[in-house]
Fold each of these.
Amino acid sequence: MDKFRSVLNLSMQQQKTLGMGMLALLTVGGEHLFSVVVFQCPCSSWNFCYGMVFLLVPALIFFVIGYLLSARTWKLLTGCCVRSGGCFGRRRRNCPRCLYVFFLTTVEASVVPFTWISVALLNGTYYECAMTGFDSKFYRDSVCTGRPEECVDNLSSFPCKRTTSSLTAPVIDDVLKHIRAQAQVLGWILIACIATLALLITCISRCRSPVSFAQLKFWGTYLEEECRLLQSKSQQHAKQLAERNITSFFDFKEPEPFVTPTNKQWEQISLLYSFNPKGQYYSMIHKYVESGSQRNHSIRSVEGDVPPPSALEFIDAVNVSSSGI
């Protein structure tokens, strides 16, 4: 039982890593399934369009889903057009901060799409179909260099292995191997660029961190606990309020007094996090609670508040649920 509990605790601690690993495995499996079961190259003038659709459209769909599942998206957009301090409200001073959060959300949503494109390029099936239909004389001539003259005119039929007297199976296979090699080289270049960029961004953000490594770890642990307790307390509070209202409705009596946060108080803790070197606030709830007698006033802007350094941007990504939908 202790061993099971240890494994469970380890899984909870590495939840994000395991989630990203599962997401990568699902992407690889989905790409393989599509290329084997669904994808059928038309071997006509439609090759380029058909291949690019399978290469890029699933990536676009994953990109949109990434936005939908991001806590930052809904924290940024909810009420932004009607609140005075929202990104598109009457006071536009938060626009740079909102744009920066939008950029971070875009980067986060791009992980799975780039994984799909990289895996698809390494497989080479979609790229092979697309490039055999690429209407470029220079490309066709470069691919068919040293091959029979019919190669240029019949390149779009190569994925279907349609042979002629001069275009034998070995010739077609040789051309397709050349195209697939191009796809795999592009795939590895894309992976190397993404990995290098991710390493640079992570190193730069950590170098600019205003707190130590140990405090960053504590900060993450605190946010996980706060999120868990907020969700638990919200469910308990909502249940009590619902029971009070239902009881009052069916018993035909005045409802008992019940204290619940106001709209303004909910708005205060839903604001984008701002770092303050003069105050040690681990979240907007922490900042709101520490304001004490000033709770009825806005905590949107306190003296010394600055946009959080990149090492602390994980704070706005934490939410009580996996998404805001």
Amino acid sequence: MSEEKGKKRSKSWYVQHAKRSKNARELDVGMQGVLITCNMKERKCSFEAYSLLNEYGDQLYGPEKFIQDENQSESDDEEDDAEAALKKEVSEIRSSTENNLRRFQALDSGANNVIFIRTLGVEPEKLVHHILKDLHTTKKKKSRVILRMLPVAGTCKAFIDDMKKFAKCFLEPWFKAPNKGTFQIVYKARNNNHMKREEVIKSLAEVIGSLNHENKVDLNNPEYTVIVEIIKNVCCMSVVRDYVLFRKYNLQEVVKNASESKPVQLLHAHSEDLTNSSEKEKHEGQNNQEQEKIELLDNPGQEVCGNSGSQEHGTATTEKNSTDLKPSS
């Protein structure tokens, strides 16, 4: 027994254990959640994200409840075998960890200024749309550092074959016949160099077209927007509504009133007025010069006021006109 306790673990065991613990705390395939972008200040962004998600999550799904393991054994004295007792303790720790997982849990996204909040028992698209709809209606600003809040309904490996295979099943609820609609694809890649934007968009558009030939592309005001966010080797995908109405799911822009954009419009209108007035003055100047030329033809002896070029041109016109008026001999 003492020999087993004194046995050292190999280096590979520690490496695998470190990889498993690291993967449990970062964005990975098979997760759902919310991608949140910010401009620096990631810690404050996480705090605001938790506040918003918990507030609206309680509205949709009720207060969060923690499940406690009630099936714990009460007969510890019956466990005489040390190995069986150790296995039992490990299983209890694992079950208590799984049962006590929170509804929202921040994980490492793998990119700067991007936070991933994993969700459990929550529909990310429904929750984020509910948040944006309320902010758009009330125009009440509830965050300072959060920029965009994008739902992640599914994840897969960031390779074109894996993405096409995943998209065929994932996109069926929106685009498979008899369902149909107009759509656009929004693509963004971070810390990834092997994926090409045109190839991804073309492949996903072909998948949507194969589900129903009546699905049409609309880049101005589509019914559905397919969001594709790639971070390292993980592809995050979701389908959202009102992407244009909610200002690309930007929390800072969606709360702005239409009146806040009027000064910019007035500035453009003023510049257009200045341009139009300068063109009008130029046109009037040309008309005045033509009028002076006509008067000069009618009155050959009259001098023309202006620059030297105009005087020379006027004089030449006068001389020509006077010769034309001479009677033929």
